[in-house]
C-alpha cells in the first residue's frame, strides 16, 4: 500500500536536454483588439509570478513537429482575440497602487526549438526533472520587468518525432481551471474548421472586486499581512522556502486502491459519533493523510503544537450569484484546517477528514467576500504550516488536439519546502495520485515512515 515512487537513478537522469532554439517570434491577435486596462482582483494581485507547464506528445506521422509548430502558432493568434489580455503587459497603476493588465496587443512570444534526444531518451516523464525547464521560455533577457510578456509558448521537437509544448504564463492571468479552458480553446483553434472557441471566456475580473467600503467579517488566520506595497515585492520571495540543497525530494504514489482504502477508513461510526454527513472525497482523504504525516514529522514531539494545513478551494459555484464557469481569472481562495498534533495522531481519520471538509465548507459567499475585502485592507498572502497544491484533477492531459492528447502533462517543479504537490499519474489508473514532497532529510525519514504506517493502520473506530 502506498508505494514510494522509484525515482530514476541519478546517473540516468538527463540533466541537459541539449535544446537549440531554432526560431523566436511574437504572435499577435489575429484581429485588432481594443486598447484598455484590465482590472485585476485582489486574488490576482498577489499571484504575480510565472507558472510553467509542459505537455509531452508522442510522434504522430500525420502531424510532424514542423506542421504542429505552424498550426499551434495560427491557433494562438486566433485565441488571442478573445484572450486579448494575454497579449498585454502587467503594469502598476501609480495612482491606485494596484497591478493591472494593459491590453495593448504587444503579443505572446513563440519559440520553436529542437532537442538532440528522443522522448524515450529523456526517460521518466513523471520524475520532476529540473531539465524540463529547458522546454519553456523562462524569461526574456534584456527586457524590463514591465515589458515582459505575460505568456510564452515553446514547441520543442525530439529526434523520435515526438514533441513538447511548454507554456509559461503569469499566474495573475489564470488559475488552474481557467488555464485548462484556455488550452481547450487553443486546441479547438488548431483544427482546420474555423469553428468558434470551444468555451467563451468570461474576462470580467470586477466580479471579484472588493466591496466598497470593504467589510472584513471573519478572522482570517489563513492570511498574512504584507508589509511591502503590491508590485514592489521580490518576485523570488515564496511563501515557503528553504535552501534547495538541504531538501530531500521524494514522490509517493497512492494507487486507486489506496485512495479507496482511505475513503473506507474515513467513514465515521455513526453509533460512536452521531455524524454520518462528512464529505468523504478523494481529495479530502488524501489531504488528511498527508496532513497527519507532515504535522507529525515536523513537530510530533509536542502533542499540543497546533498544525495548520492550507489548500485551495474553487469559489466559482460558492458565490451568490455564482461566477460564470468560464471565468478567466483566479477564483480560488485558501481554505485551512487546524488541529493539535495529538488530535492528528490519536484521532480517527474520520475526524481529520471532517476538519478538512469543514475548511472547504467555511468558504461561503460571505467568507469569500470577506477574504477578498481583507486583501483590500491589508494586502497579503496565504499563511500556514504548509500548503497542498493540487494539479491532480485539472485534466490538462484530457485536452484533445488535432495531433491527439498529451502523453503526460506536468508542471515544471521548483522544489519548495512546505509546498506539497499532488499530480496525476501517467498511467490510465484514474484515481491514482502522485504526492511530491521536498523536506529536510530527517523530516523526510519521519514523513516516509508515517506515510506507510498510517496507510496500513485500521482506525480503532472500526
TrEMBL record:
UniProt xrefs under InterPro entries: CAT-like_dom_sf, Plant_Fungal_Acyltransferase
Gene Ontology molecular function, alphabetical: acyltransferase activity, transferring groups other than amino-acyl groups
Segment forming the signal sequence: none
Gene3D superfamilies, alphabetized: Chloramphenicol acetyltransferase-like domain (3.30.559.10)
Family per similarity comment: Belongs to the plant acyltransferase family.
Protein name: OLC1v1025670C1
Organism: Oldenlandia corymbosa var. corymbosa
